[in-house]
Design a protein that fits this description.
single chain, about 400 residues, alpha/beta, Rossmann fold, six-stranded parallel beta sheet, two-stranded parallel sheet
């Protein structure tokens, strides 16, 4: 079962880019693909990088308002995005405080921070399956009131996750053998992530974290608008498709060629603007391409259709309010996932027939929800449930 991931706007190669791809691929294998394949390690995952053709501001973002806000490196940006809504100002033990509010959120924060470092993606993802299963299914949280520091919290979390009897969820049983891959080293990496989180909170109060994140968020917003405009201007025609369309179509062709007789399905996961590109591709540029499952995440496909921005959009629809645009005939199943706090994620069922909407609620602020879906093990866990066909 080949998987194609089509990224959203603002994705650019640079420090940490390949590590982020490796971490995301590993989480796909351990959570989603493990639920639908006997051997998820054998699945081919493709990540077409269309960002190379995206917006390139001629004055290198000179149009952004200047400020005195501290510049962030890639590591601090992840902490600001994932940690700011979870960590609270004044916590002497920020991780323990976060875990008392939501153990699952604390696990997400630890793993997102740890995955920022190079290497060990498969081991981290394997342990994440076990940790998320524990955080979701252990009813006894009284121990969180009994530990008094971040160090005690992390030591007790390690002990309890290692001793946890996994649920029957597909993929969790395989993760039970993660120790053979170096469990102690993986927990040591989680411990290093905890140190980074405490250090970050120590030098930036919770309110300041939001301020520090605002500058890169402004840049991402500029790239979001820029990438949309560049795509719409340069997507081309069916006879002469643009570079972005060719790159994504090439990945889908490669996925279709890589299917195996025992599992001839192709999955496409498209984030944000990636969903719009894939929809345009499948309805106009390459209606001959078949996709067994399309998962759009934090995407604007329905909104683009309301504005009639797709090349196959029909201005005569809707003729009456109950009319819907049919799901593309070459897509067997389409699920659409959004966070209600993500102002860039839209529901699909009010515009399209045949799409299944799912709400993944992080409870995060508007600034962070859109960019953090695929950093979170808990999201991959729920995506795996949806792909496997679990009820809402």
């Amino acid at each position: 079962m080949p998987l194609v991931f089509v990224h959203g706007v603002g994705a650019r190669e640079g420090p940490g880019f390949e590590d982020a791809v490796a971490a995301r691929d590993a989480l796909f294998r351990r959570f989603m693909l493990a639920r639908v394949l006997a051997d998820p390690a054998a699945a081919a995952i493709s990540n077409p990088y269309w960002g190379r053709h995206g917006a390139r501001p001629a004055w290198s973002h000179a149009s952004l308002p200047g400020d005195e806000v501290e510049a962030l490196g890639p590591e601090d940006e992840v902490l600001a995005m994932v940690g700011a809504p979870v960590l609270e100002e004044g916590d002497e033990a920020p991780l323990l405080g976060a875990a008392r509010r939501s153990l699952e959120e604390a696990v997400d924060l630890l793993w997102a921070t740890a995955s920022d470092e190079p290497g060990g993606a498969e081991e981290l993802a394997g342990l994440a399956v076990r940790a998320v299963d524990y955080a979701r299914n252990e009813p006894d949280r009284t121990w969180l009131a009994e530990v008094g520091s971040d160090e005690e919290f992390l030591a007790e979390l390690e002990r309890r996750v290692d001793a946890w009897t996994p649920s029957s969820a597909p993929g969790v049983e395989e993760a039970a053998g993660y120790e053979a891959l170096g469990g102690a080293e993986t927990w040591a990496r989680i411990g290093e992530a905890a140190d980074r989180i405490r250090g970050f909170v120590g030098r930036l109060a919770g309110r300041a974290v939001v301020e520090v994140a605002r500058s890169p968020a402004h840049k991402r917003t500029a790239l979001f608008l820029g990438d949309i405009l560049v795509y719409l201007r340069e997507r081309g025609t069916a006879e002469a498709p643009g570079d972005i369309v060719r790159d994504v179509a090439g990945a889908l062709d490669g996925a279709r060629a890589a299917v195996r007789p025992e599992d001839p399905r192709v999955i496409v996961v498209a984030h944000s603007m990636g969903g719009n590109i894939v929809y345009d591709l499948l309805t106009h540029f390459r209606p001959d391409l078949r996709v067994d499952l399309l998962a759009t995440v934090g995407s604007q496909v329905a909104f683009f259709e309301e504005l009639k921005l797709f090349l196959e959009s029909d201005g005569a629809v809707p003729a009456k309010p109950t009319d819907r645009v049919s799901k593309p005939a070459n897509v067997d199943r389409w699920i659409n996932i959004f966070d209600r706090n993500d102002i860039l994620g839209f529901a699909g069922e009010g515009v399209f027939s045949g799409v299944e909407d799912y709400d993944y609620s992080t409870g995060k602020g508007l600034l962070f929800a859109h960019t953090t879906y695929f950093l979170r093990p808990s999201f991959h866990d729920r995506l795996g449930e949806r792909v496997a066909g679990s009820p809402r």
